[in-house]
Design brief:
This protein has 421 residues and is mainly α. It has helices spanning 2-13, 17-21, 24-27, 36-49, 64-74, 93-103, 110-122, 127-132, 147-162, 172-182, 189-205, 210-228, 233-247, 249-253, 257-273, 279-302, 306-319, 324-337, 340-353, 358-371, 375-388, 393-400, 406-417.
């Protein structure tokens, strides 16, 4: 009976292309094709199910809004923030096991807790982590050495949950947990590296004073030195690529283009030279190269080199062809170049692939089609966008700006009739 139930859930989620691609978020099932961040969930499950296998800690995290968008396509029952909120008849065997172990959390070993927390984080299920992991922690010699890893996971979950309501570009209340881990020399070296990287990068994005950024850059160098020689070849090189990608912010903040270019070249070279030997390492390799190419595309835009930006964004879609955000990045570059047709093509692919960037892709494809004089195609996409997001202002205005043609005038009347105050 359970096999039949699993099959029914699988068929239901496979009825839409986007939910078929992203199904691990909804049922923890295996997938045939999908973006790297969805593949990370299966790798995280394998690491949790087999305690003797290497742990799996992906870098990328998606905002809670991603799950909201995905639930809109999968159906209201999938709009959950805790796995235990999913109806029992929609749970696969893996999902049931996840719920059972969440109930047993206090009895789990610290190692099992770390792996379970990493899996929940990959699934964008952040709220349970704030409830299960205590806010206060200690890295004293007598304490559990994995406490810092759990504290980092909790801090990361809070960072993601606070993102939509954050008023400051560097919120001390959200970032203090990362700072505490970063300055504690007793922390496990990889955890301290991750926390220091988080603080350094977020301060750079918030345009902290150069002296403050330089100070944290030195801390980052010390944290990197502690992991550089303490890990296996693949992991050590992965840390090296991440280190140089983060350090690229320092010359950028100082306005030193040549130094930034050199630093990012090292990050990319290390990322491309990684030699994964397992399926899990292949995911981490692609995830890291994705992040590097995304940063390098932004770097090229900062340097006002649109041709270079287009080349790097194209590489990004080859590394992660099922990620809608990668296609939006490519569409943006072509849009800046004024190449409406190629921009529209990239945006349409993003719209097809689903969250997290399908809504942006759908709307921007409509904008490009409008510029190409394909008003009816544009109208269809603006209508679709407005039906999915009735509060959308931009798509509604685009409908109002369409030519005065009878059928489009009716569309405009509809757009006016459902304005929500």
């Amino acid at each position: 009976m359970r096999d039949l139930a699993n099959l029914a859930v699988s068929e239901s989620l496979g009825s839409r292309f986007s939910t078929w691609l992203l199904r691990p978020y909804l049922d923890l099932g295996r997938l045939q094709a999908g973006p790297t961040h969805a593949r990370s969930i299966d790798a995280g499950w394998q690491a949790y199910a087999d305690p003797d296998s290497p742990s799996f800690l992906p870098q990328r995290a998606l905002s809670p809004g991603f799950r909201v968008q995905l639930a809109e396509q999968a159906g209201a029952p999938y709009a959950v923030s805790d796995p235990r909120d999913l109806a029992k008849d929609l749970r696969t065997d893996r999902w049931r096991k996840l719920c059972q172990d969440l109930e047993l959390w206090p009895k789990l070993s610290s190692a099992r807790k770390c792996r379970l927390a990493a899996l929940l984080h990959s699934m964008c299920l952040y709220e349970p982590l704030l409830k299960l992991i205590p806010e206060d922690w200690s890295s004293d010699s007598d304490a559990d050495p994995r406490a810092a890893q759990l504290a980092f996971c909790r801090a990361s979950a809070k960072f993601m949950l606070d993102m939509p309501k954050r008023t400051s570009s560097y919120d001390s209340g959200t970032m203090s947990a990362f700072e505490s881990i970063a300055i504690d020399d007793q922390c496990h070296a990889p955890v301290r590296f991750n926390a220091t990287a988080m603080v350094f990068v977020q301060k750079a994005k918030a345009r902290a004073p150069l002296a403050e950024l330089d100070d944290w850059g030195k801390r980052f160098e010390i944290a990197f030195a502690a992991v550089e020689d303490g890990e296996n070849g693949f992991t050590a090189q992965l840390f090296k690529s991440r280190f140089y990608r983060g350090m690229g912010f320092l010359p950028q903040a100082a306005g030193n283009r040549e130094a930034m270019f050199r630093t990012m070249d090292i990050a990319e070279r290390q990322a491309r030279d990684l030699a994964p030997t397992t399926a899990a390492e292949e995911i981490l390799y692609r995830e890291n190269l994705h992040a590097v190419l995304e940063s390098r595309t932004k770097e090229a835009l900062w340097l006002n080199d649109l041709e270079l930006a287009a080349s790097r964004a194209s590489d990004l879609t080859r590394v992660d062809p099922y990620d809608s955000k990668a296609w939006v990045e490519l569409g943006q570059v072509h849009y800046l170049k004024g190449n409406w047709q190629r921009a529209a093509e990239a945006y349409i692919v993003a719209a097809m692939l689903g969250p997290p960037a399908s809504s942006v892709g759908r709307y921007m494809a409509g904008v490009c089609f409008s510029k190409l004089g394909l008003e009816f195609l544009a109208a269809f996409l603006f209508k679709e966008t407005l039906e999915i997001d009735p509060l959308g202002i931009s798509s509604r205005q685009e409908i109002f700006d369409l030519p005065d043609i009878e059928v489009l005038d009716t569309l405009k009347q509809w757009a006016r009739s459902n304005i929500r105050l």
